[in-house]
Amino acid sequence: MVHIKNLAAPLSITGCTCSIARAAFNCNRREYIVTVHMFLQSENLCMGLFGKKPAPEIIPDARVDRQCRELMRATTRGELGERIAGLVLLYSPSDIQQMKRNFETKVRDLDPAYRERLTAKITEYLLGTCQRIRLDNQQGVYKTLKQPVLPAQKNYWEMVARQCGDEEGGDLPVIRFLKYLLAGYSMLVLEEPGHAVGTPFPGGDEVEYTGGVYYCPVREKASDVDAALCPFCPAKQTPSIGYLRPATKPTERNKQEFIDNCYRYHNFNG
To answer: How many CB atoms lie within 10 A of CB 185?
Structure first.
């Protein structure tokens, strides 16, 4: 509650006029207090949509390993989703912005046009996934997700604990942990790719969703990177271009490769 102090009625008003003025002043004062109080409530509500800033004792770097072990104990997708949501909602919008800045630093040397597309998609993914988690948590979606978490999927959290065990990599472990929480939610709870549909990769290919199946152009690169999401991602490798199976969502380069393939291997003479 905000109180009004050091406000005095006009000195020149006397008698009945003074009483009327005082009554009007008190009325306006009450309206002002109510208005300010409502504003503060609205501001708190808006910030509450994104969760609270985590205090150091809530998500310290040293406890990421223990939190990963807790996540490994989840037996169903719903239970895992609820546990992930409980951690993600402790973060604030500033943490998401920090993740975005960290990513922009990592891709600053890429081709400007590609960098802009990629950064926009990653930002969309970060904000969208956080919002999805908040809504799923509010709507009680987790009670309906009874499917079991497979033993191989639980290994994801072992990888996360290793990757968040130190400050190497240019970002704080607690921020890195948030990145893996969001990816884990997408892959293990929602059964969606760790990179959102439409995420571009060098060469023009993108993560695609066709005929109820997710396709990723780098799915087979799982063994090339220790921290890759690929082993835990439900997406399939984007099919090779051929006479019987063209690209699921062809780029101009894909179309030309398809034409060349037909000409070279199927005696296409025009």
So the answer is: 23
